[in-house]
Amino acid sequence: MSSPRNRKGIVGSVVAVLSSLRLTVLLLSLCMILIFVATLLQVEMGIHEVQLKFFRSWIAWFDIVPGEKRFPIPFPGGMLLGALLLLNLLAAHIRRFKLSWGKAGMLLVHTGIVLMLLGELFTAVLSVESQIRLDEGETSNYSLSPREIELALIGPGENGIETVNAIPFGRLREGASFGFDGFELRVTHFFRNSHIEDERLAGADYDPMRANRGMGVSLAVKGKPRETAMDLRDLTSVFVEIISPDGKSQGRWLLSNALAGVQEFEVNGKTWKMAIRQQRFYHPFSIRLLDFTHERYLGTQIPKNFSSRIRLLNPETGEDRETLIYMNHPLRYGGLTFYQAGFDNNDSTSILQVVRNPAWTMPYVSCAMVGIGLVWIFSQHLIKAFARRRTFAA
Amino acid sequence: MKSLNRHISWLIPAICIVALAVGAWRATRSSEGFDLQGFGTLPVVANGRIQPLDALARNRLLSIYGKQSVPGENPPPSPAGWLAELAFKPQDADQRPIFLIHHDEVLGLLELKQEDGKSFSFKRLAPRLGEMAGEASRIAIKDSQTWSPYEKALMKLWRNLGNYQQLKFAIAHPESLGLESDLTLLLQKAREALAETEKRERGEKFDAAAVEAATARMQVLLEWSTQTEVFTKPPSMGGLAAEWLKFPDAASAAIDNGELDPSTLAFARMGDAWRSGDVAIFNTTVSEYLSWLRNYRGSDLRKTRAESTFNHLAPFYACMGVYVAAFLCAAISWLLPGGDLRRAAFRLLLVGLAIHTVGLIVRMTLEGRPPVTNLYSSAVFIGWGAIVLSVMLELFYKNAIGTAVASMTGFGTLIIAHHLSLSGDTLEMMRAVLDTNFWLATHVIVITLGYSATFLAGAIAIAYIIRRIFGKIPESTATSMRGMVYGVICFATLASFVGTVLGGIWADQSWGRFWGWDPKENGALLIVIWNVIILHARWGGMVKERGMMVMAVFGNIVTSWSWFGTNMLGIGLHSYGFTDAAFFWLSAFILSQLVVMAIGIIQGRLNAKPSGSQPIST
């Protein structure tokens, strides 16, 4: 049982450590190491993986020998360092808080930093990125997740309206089963990233499992490490069985986002369709690509501009208008921002990046605050330096 | 003696200005013989932009041979002269040893040995071109990230050979010995063939051989068109930039128009005059074509004339000399009493800065862009920014330290710029993503100033550590150096932070994400964090004067990593420029900085009572 005096001493020293500049310097140095190592590892792992494993994690695991997956050592991750820095900053300000013009600059800078860190956190949690891929003349009212996939089951509807059941990626794993009206869908094999080949050409490293129904009947699958390049995405493949209520298997299908189109099966005389596809986000409006242009500088392959002329159709607001999306000039509409992200098919397909980020204004505010704060602090230093020189000169 | 001392502060800068003026006059005066000055001014479109033939020749020569001078017997006096020779008398140009080959295995492939030298003529390489082509097409389909050093060396040589060959077809055809008469004949025969085809269409008797011969000639033009990427025929007055034509296409177009256009005729005639050594006809043709251009393509000509003059004057090379002189004056001023030499050094620095500034402005005008558009221009601008900051320091502290450090930084960054210019056209067109003057003028400028300031703080710190090797630094000097480094780090923090965040805002505007952990972004963030660490360590009393200096030197490493190291990873949206040699030099630089830091740390250990043990006052 410690005495109150002693306890105050412990609390005091904890606060002293938490609010110390030494901790600031230590944490910032750890940040530098984390960022540097994570930058180097991007060559191997890809930006997306690195973000998840190092910056959006509490503990980052470093391999001692690069490439060897043995002896990983723990290192504070981005979340942990950010949280500790935030604590350090708050503790320091609470402990030394004094309202004065001299301190105003520091306060502004640090509030700005806090806002920026929070902004990044909100972005990490709230922002959603997807893509719309449109051929010239095509209209679409949904965008696709660049990485996440879903297993879509399209049930027979009434009056020509179909119902779509989507099983999110997170729930797909070997042995998982999902009950539907009159049948059960069971995942027997799951490949996060895969390569599909005609079984006559497939080598010994391919999985022996084959489908006995649908498009995948003569195809072989092998698992692959996840893609690291920014412009490549994983091709996920699963083998599923459809089980009737009597426990009898209707057959085994191969589903993959490498296979285009849907596959059908029949239960109780009703036709169902299923497919592995990029996760879809539906919007209350649609976009039609009128024209995509890809300009190059004369006599070179250097791109000069990419632009998509689109028609925006929103039945709710009655909007039906044309607009142009091009490099550095996105379209902001309905809480979403549409960017020109890429092209395909000999310049006849445009790929638009669609981003929902409710926290997008925070960096602007925090940047202004920190900038003004720094100018404030450093001009005070400058004034002091001039004053000192004047006294020397006198 | 005393009066001379007093005048020295004016005399040295005055001598320097006179020397520069003489140099400029010699560089721009026209030489006797072929009017290469005028020839070099002629506008063409290459690499996506209108440029003078002089710039085309210079950049090709630099990227192939690494120098702007031509080797071999009776060398042409200028890059433009080399281009004329290459186009009009290729058999002479093919004997000049301009292809550099260092890699053993590439030498082996070409049946050459180290003893044969390092540079080889096209003629020497020609017998093994088939062998090279096979290797090149094998390597080309591989991902360039996976190329071995041999493959990289081979592909570089292969590209250089391709670029060299293209120039032969830019304004002439190597197999035509009288291009003007050949083209005239072509027009005449084409007209005759046209008449024959009309006869055939009317069902009359016609000369099939004439039609066939003309078709074969047209075929030559079509093939020729694939052999060059240079556009020589300007659009008619007021025409769009996209209407420039390549030489062979202009010749084909002439068949419809019935006559050769002025540019095609002029180049053909120049070639014939060059081959027959007729200086008078060559010069008249050049001047007639120039006056035609003045009337019909005035603005293009003004641009190419400015760029050609700029290349001849080479202001950034002139700056390098001035900065060395300024550094020497500053260094000597510490050994001599009186402030005259210090003032001379400062004025020299201002002369250098003036030329540097004019150079930057001319480049901006030529490109129609803010000063930093690629790695080359960032090097030029980092030096400029460091010098502007040092001028302010020198005005404040008046101890020649600012001058000395600035002149060295300016010299160093311009050396780097020179090596970066070897990779090709430094006024290249901007890729679509970067095509926005607003963000180039804000984010890029501010972040580059952050680099400048961090390097400057590091450079002052190096000066401090080196100075301490020679004994204790007087308290007043130590105080001012401390103040300089501290002040510059404050500025560096501001600029690198604001620059980094502006980059984030640009990314948000263009790609929908504020921060993507892209290597270049991380590099910029590292600079911000490092400067912030120095400031907090200083405020917390964790480091004193010497510690701050050692940390500032580490700032050089962090900045060089962000500037070059991140580009070497070859990933992310910012990976726009990389050369292998850069990796070696970056490592060497980092090593040298570590040595300086070690010296700084050891100094502190040796001195039982460090000189920098004053209480924190900032």
Task: Outline the fold blueprint.
The complex is a heterodimer of chains A (394) and B (618).
Chain A: H1 4-18, H2 21-45, H3 47-55, E1 59-63, E2 72-76, H4 78-96, H5 101-126, E3 128-135, E4 139-158, E5 161-168, E6 177-180, E7 183-191, E8 194-198, E9 219-223, E10 237-243, E11 249-256, E12 263-267, E13 270-296, E14 303-314, E15 319-326, E16 331-333, E17 336-344, E18 349-356, H6 362-393
Antiparallel strand pairs in A: 1-2, 3-18, 4-5, 4-13, 6-7, 7-10, 8-9, 10-11, 12-13, 13-14, 14-15, 16-17, 17-18
Helix pairs in contact in A: 2-3, 2-4, 4-5, 5-6
Chain B: H1 2-28, H2 36-41, E1 43-46, E2 49-52, H3 53-65, H4 79-88, H5 90-93, E3 99-100, H6 104-109, E4 119-120, H7 122-125, H8 129-140, H9 149-168, H10 179-201, H11 208-225, E5 231-233, E6 245-246, H12 247-257, H13 262-276, H14 279-296, H15 298-313, H16 315-335, H17 340-367, H18 375-397, H19 401-421, H20 437-469, H21 475-511, H22 519-539, H23 545-568, H24 580-606
Antiparallel strand pairs in B: 1-2, 3-4, 5-6
